[in-house]
Amino acid sequence: GGVPPATDLVLGATAGCLACVLTNPLEVVKTRLQLQGELQPPGTYPRPYRGVLRALGAVCRADGLRGLQKGLAASLLYQGLMNGVRFYCYSHAEDAGWTRYPGGTVAAGAIAGAVGAFVGSPAYLVKTHLQAQTLSSVAVGHQHNHEVRDGVWE
């Protein structure tokens, strides 16, 4: 008696995307904090991002308020793919009766999660590149400088 797998795909993707719009600014800050000093010995690099609140301010100063939503399109693609596929696969596993067996729920969840992560992985990579992209004065890590042309990332 559950919903059809296609409905689970749409609902899962939509829920992930709605959450993404709200959490993307923190993802930008997290990415910048994590990449700061990438592959360099401690104390040998400048630290433009010091803590979450200061990093929020640094992003806004360098990239404007819109900088907090850097990589949003790739984030939405990632969340839509990953969550939609996870819900879709799990729904199929339920319909096939896998979840009625001992350990079936865990196995179905693990497989659905793995497939969703695999499908969403390329979008996650581009999302991280875009979120790290900023002015050279506060850049962290390697700047990939992706651009969107005619709806395609380059």
From TrEMBL:
Keyword Ligase: no
GO CC term, one of those recorded: mitochondrial inner membrane
Membrane topology of the entry: Multi-pass membrane protein
InterPro entries for the chain: MCP_dom_sf, MCP_transmembrane, Mito_Carrier_Antiporter
Domain of life: Eukaryota
Pfam family, one: Mito_carr
Signal peptide as annotated in the record: none
Repeat (Solcar) residue spans along the chain: 3-96
PROSITE patterns: SOLCAR
Keywords: Membrane, Mitochondrion, Mitochondrion inner membrane, Repeat, Transmembrane, Transmembrane helix, Transport
Cellular location(s): Mitochondrion inner membrane
Entry similarity comment: Belongs to the mitochondrial carrier (TC 2.A.29) family.
Protein name (Swiss-Prot/TrEMBL): Solute carrier family 25 member 34
Originating species: Eolophus roseicapilla
Gene name of the record: Slc25a34
